[in-house]
Amino acid sequence: MTDYFNEMFHAGQVRAPYGRLQDWMAAMPAELRQMKQAEAEELFRRIGITFAVYGEGGDPDRLIPFDMFPRVFTAQEWARLDRGIRQRARALNAFLADVYGRGEIVRAGRIPADLVYKNAAYEKSVAGFVPPKGVYSHIVGIDLVRTGPEDFYVLEDNCRTPSGVSYMLENREIMMRMFPDIFRENRIEPVDRYPDLLRRTLASVAPAKCNRDPNIVILTPGHFNSAYYEHSFLADLMGVELVEGQDLFVEGEFVWMRTTEGPRRVDVIYRRIDDDFIDPLCFRPDSMLGVPGLMDVYRSGGVSICSAPGAGVADDKAVYTYVPEMIRFYLGEEPILQNVPTWQCAKGDDLKYVLENLGELVVKEVHGSGGYGMLVGPKSTRDQIESFRARVAANPGNYIAQPTLALSASPTFVEEGVAPRHVDLRPYCLVGERIELVPGGLTRVALTEGSLVVNSSQGGGVKDTWVLAE
């Protein structure tokens, strides 16, 4: 694929936001670049930033490749993204409040009932319950792609526990440590307020029974989880306790944390475990990760769980196709950011088109993540396409399809120098009493030439993301 938008060079000219980086790039000989790259890797390893990929043998803890060439947005570009992300987060939360309440959008025929109420992510156990401040998804990760100077599209929504924010913060920290001069020469909006904003957001949704400074904890599945580094990293930066299920217990109307000084009441749980494992008395009885009785306390207003159990129905890839309609229905506005055109294989005509054009499309499982369970038609072999065709035909409702977009490319340091590589962006929108986000996000980069798959589990890397101040 050669017809794509190059974010640094356009119409033969260096685009304005990258103007000062051209000299920086040209002045970095290969030896210095290799030395700095090794320094960055050593910093990541020393800090302990690893992720786990299971089932592949060998050491499951790896460094995510870090590319030193930053991705840059102007203040004007970011202002539009900021408005669109906030709009989408408001609509998604309004949808969750509605479908766990009266279901007006379903009654109005704007979204099929089966898609919501028969969805595996819909939790009947919380139907009718309104969480504190009416917020269901407290951290919304919106995955964005760019195809032109003014063309941004939402690829998917992450309303449960979007990961990667630790890389956004550490990418910036390491870039500032290695290249202080370019930060003096460029006015770059900071991202280091994120932990304070996250803590303020979580505190703002403490339950009504909390009449004091709320005690916030992060609930992790433990050190074997692929995002454990991030859990401990955020707990440290926010100054809150990192706990596992065994550290908490229910007594009376509240959740308590075991400490060396005796039990301490917990008011807000930022959970980084899936719904199924939160409470073995409500969900999976074999779960050893959750807290027995937690859901009873939650439903009686004794603790807040962020994001709310059941929030995942809003980020299902089939439900995604209806988010523009949610914006119109709940907010009375036109979407600022558009969806990627999507075919729902559960629909007969859509399925026919997808099966006839598999070699040109990207096909995804509606509950898939991490780059797994998907087919990138133009990059697949005939055997892979035929194998996927059988899977889609056997279970159409499990798949959606999208055109193969010409994702924008950002300059990236590669072995031979600098070359364009395809990128996406995940900003993190915090929803509590207020909606807030820092100017930036996690840029993921497909390091393999021509690849469109940016996920770290599939060989992708990360970059620092700059938003230039006005």
Automatic annotation (TrEMBL):
This is Circularly permuted type 2 ATP-grasp protein. Residues 70-446 form the Circularly permuted ATP-grasp type domain. Transmembrane segments: none annotated. The lineage of its organism: Bacteria, Pseudomonadati, Pseudomonadota, Alphaproteobacteria, Rhodobacterales.
